[in-house]
Amino acid sequence: MKISDRSLFGLYITFLFVLAGAAIAFMWTGGRARPDGWGRAPNEIVFTGWGGPEEKDTFTRLVNEFMRENPDIKVRYVIVPQNYMQKLQIMMAGGTPPDVFYIPDGDFPAFVVKQTMEPLTKYIEQSQAFKTEEIWPSALSRYRYDGKSLGTGDLYAVPKDIGPFAMFYNKDLFRKAGLPFPSAGTPMTWDDAIRVWKALTIEDKRHPGVIDQFGVAGFTWESAVWSLGGEVLSKDGRRFVMPDDPKSVEGFQWVVDLAIKQKCAPSPRQARSFDPGPMFDTGKLACLIAGRWNVPHYRTLNFDWDVAPIPVNPKTRRLAGWSGSVGLAMSRTCRNKEAAWRFLEFLGGPRGQSVQSETGFQIPNQMKLAYTDVFLQRDKRPQHAEVFIPAALAQRPGIHTLAPTNEWLNEFTQRATPIWEGRISAAEGLKQMQPYVQKGLDNSWSEEQ
């Protein structure tokens, strides 16, 4: 039988992945790896993730606590400091996957299609610690996939966290401008917010046209589109409907105009020179729309700050936005699935979530825990942490989770530049990009068949 050059190349690439996966596992085991690639003891599972020193300390604490409560199971915790997804894919292809691992909400569909993740529904149905009715609905739906429709079918990951967005604001700058603080209970309307943000935008007196302090940054266009009642994709995620939806066009244009027309937010060119994160840190930005995971860092800042709801459209007054999340998954080839599930159940259950919430990094999976001091932490900033509770209920998974891959989103991002720069209107730009984004969307779904 004659083997084609293409087949030989495919075999060669597969061999390289196997070799690379084994090499990564061998490196992380200090050269002690046995045939399974990790050198696992019979009662041992390997857990991989990423994160800074604080997250590493938190999960080291959780691993040790779990092993004390479950002396029959050993957990080896491996931090991947860089290129996590690339290395995870190599390990999967090489046949040396970790037993339990982080999986971002936008990446998990491809792993489901490749049948590398264990379906968790059967474990959850028998669990007394992880009860789906107690979890934020949007935290669970983003990890369901039946191979055809996202948000339906088996659950393939336990949420490690959910990170809703809010408007962080510098209270010292509000005081200096003589402005009242935003309400924690009632979102500002867009009109009211613009008046506040413009009052907090200060021009450099020595250099006309140069902004020394901006009123706002980070307002995502999805938030505006959804607050108006618009949509980006069709309900099944297969059609790019935004250009034909007047509400979506209006919402996108409103966010663009914060910089182009209202001049209270950094333009794309200004944002390249002044990153919103450091601007907020240094008191050069009054309000920043950002995720809950920023709280541990913001607690180190030397000015007074708090959070308020993201402003809403004055007609609909609909609270909208997106929340971030990372899941915890089990490898389909895990040799000790009972042990892996017990660990997942612990991390995603009340105890694991309470420990993670203590850091301020996230809102806990269990909705009832969010109303306790485990999350609210009244003795620490933000003063009004309860703002994140309605946000978690209202906010959706991000647009990066709407299709199996992000080829469509890459097209959108690339072709939206003229809109952001004010060279063409949102209506015109969205129409121009429509066939290209739709083609990317078609490719995204066809790759999963």
Give a verbal description of the structure.
With 449 residues, this protein is an alpha/beta fold. It has two domains: 22-162 and 324-390, Periplasmic binding protein-like II (D-Maltodextrin-Binding Protein, domain 2), CATH 3.40.190.10; 165-321 and 403-446, D-Maltodextrin-Binding Protein, domain 2 (3-Layer(aba) Sandwich), CATH 3.40.190. It has helices at 5-28, 53-69, 84-93, 108-113, 121-125, 137-141, 171-177, 190-199, 221-228, 246-260, 268-273, 276-281, 295-298, 337-348, 350-358, 373-376, 388-394, 407-415, 417-420, 426-446, and strands at 44-49, 74-79, 100-104, 144-145, 150-155, 158-159, 165-170, 202-203, 211-217, 285-291, 305-308, 322-323, 326-330, 396-397. The strands form four sheets. It has a five-stranded mixed beta sheet with strand order 2-1-3-13-6. The longest helix is centred in the first third of the chain and has 24 residues, at 5-28. The two termini are 29 Å apart. The relative contact order is 0.15.
Short description:
With 449 residues, the protein is of the alpha/beta class.
Count the domains: 2
The CATH topology assignment of the largest domain is D-Maltodextrin-Binding Protein, domain 2
Proportion in helices: 40-55%
What class would the helix/strand composition place it in? alpha/beta
For the largest beta sheet, what order do the strands appear in spatially? 2-1-3-13-6
Q: Can you count the helices?
A: 20
- Radius of gyration from CA coordinates: 24 Å
Q: What does the largest sheet look like? A: 5 strands, mixed
CATH architecture of the largest domain: 3-Layer(aba) Sandwich
The top level CATH class name of the largest domain: Alpha Beta
The end-to-end span amounts to 29 Å
